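Record passed on here:
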Amino acid sequence: MAARTLAIVLILAGGCTRCLGDDARPSTKPAAEPQAVDWSSLLVQSLSFLGIEHGFRWVTEEGTRHPHRSFFDGYVDSLNSLHGWGDGDPFYVGYVGHPMQGAVAGYIFVHNDRKYRAIEFGKNRRYWKSRLRAAAFAWAYSEQFEIEPLSEASIGNVQAFFPQQGFVDQVATPAIGLAWMITEDSMDRYVIERVDARVHNPYVRLLVRSGLNPTRSMANLIAGRVPWHRDTRPGIWEPPLSTPARRTTETSAPLDLAPFEFLATTRVEKYFGGSSHGACIGGGGAAAFRVGPQWQIVGDVSGCKLTGFGANLSGDSLSYSIGPRWTLAPFKRWEPYAQFLVGGRTLTHEEIDPAKKAQLEETAAQEGKPLSFSDHYLYTRQSETTGLAVSVNAGLDVRLTSAIAIQVANAGYMHSWHSNLDGINYANSLQLTSGLIIRFGT
C-alpha cells in the first residue's frame, strides 16, 4: 500500500513540478540557524504523509470506508488480536512497500533535523548518527500508522480481521527502511552526483535525481519542494558542478572493531524431512556484542510467513535465539564466520471455515448487525506449537566502511523440538539470510 501511494503521488505531482520552481544554489556561507529539530514542521509533514496514506486506504478499501463497528470497539478488537509475525500481505507489500514508508518517514525527519540535514553519505560519525535518529523517528511513525489512535487499527480496524494480526510491519518498516535510506544515500553520492557533474540536460538530471531516490523525492514533495531538491548542491536548472564536492569529514582512520553491531535481514527457510511442507519467507533483526577480537555474543529474533497453503489457511513462524559467533578474520575486508545459537521457535496456523463464516455473516445481516470480533473465533481455528530450537550457521560479511557492512550470505541448519502442527513437520529447516550491518563505536 505504501508503495502504491508513493507511485500515485509522484505521478500526480510530475505534471506540475516545474511550477513549484527550482532550488537555489546552496550558499557557500549559510546563515546560522537553530540546531534543534523543527518539531512544528516535522509534525505538519508527518500528518500530511499520514493523511495521504489513510486517504489512499479510504479510496481503495471498502472496509476502511465502512468498518461496521464503533470506533472504540473496533480499535480495542484490533489491539487485542495482535499476535504472531505474518499479516497476510504479499511479500512486496511487507518487505518493499512498508520499508519505503519507513524511508519516507526517515527523510521527513532528516529534512527537519537542522543540525544534520546537510550531512551526506560517508565515513563520518555525524552521518550515522543522523540516520539512526531518522530510524528512531521512522519506528515511532510506523507505530502510529499501525496501532496508535490514527492508525490502521482505528481507521478500518485492519488487525481485527484474519490474517492481519502479525507484527511484521512494525519491525520491517523501520529496520529495512533504514537500509533503504542508506542505499538511496549511497546511490545519491556515487551515481546521481556524478550524473549531476557530467550531464547538462536538466530533464535527464531531473529524472535521475527523482527516480533513483524515490522515497527522498516523496519526502521532498510532502515538504512542498520539488522532488529533485538537494540541501547540499544546486538545482537541476543551474549549470552542473564540474566535479562532485569533496568531503572534508572523511578520514582514513585505522581499522578498529565495533563493540556492538545491529543487523537487519531478509530470510528464507526451506523445510525438509518426512511430512514436511513448504517454505517460510520473512526477515528479522540481530544484535552482536563483542567479547573478544574474534568472538561475539549474538541475539537473533526473526519471523516469516509460511507458504504453500490454500486460500483459507495461513501460518507464521517466530524464532528467538542467542549464542556465540567466531570470526576467522575480523580485521579483513571479507569476514567469514560461524555461529551456534540456542533458543526457541513458535509456529502458528490459522484456518478459516468459509461455510461457517458465510452462515454467521448471513445470520448477522438478518439481525441487522455486523460480526463482532468474538465471532472471529467461531469460524477460525488456530493451532500453535512451541519448542526448543538450535541452529548452526556459517556466513560471509563484507566490510564497506568502519561503520557499515553487508551480510553477503548466512546459510545454516535449524532443528526444533516440538510436535507436528496439523500433521506438518517443521522440525528441520535450511536457512539463508542476507542483510545490512550497522556497527557502533568505531
Q: What stands out?
A: The longest strand covers residues 380-399. Residues 1-21, 245-254 have pLDDT under 50 and may be disordered. The domain at 260-440 is CATH 2.40.160.20 (Porin). The radius of gyration is 24 Å.
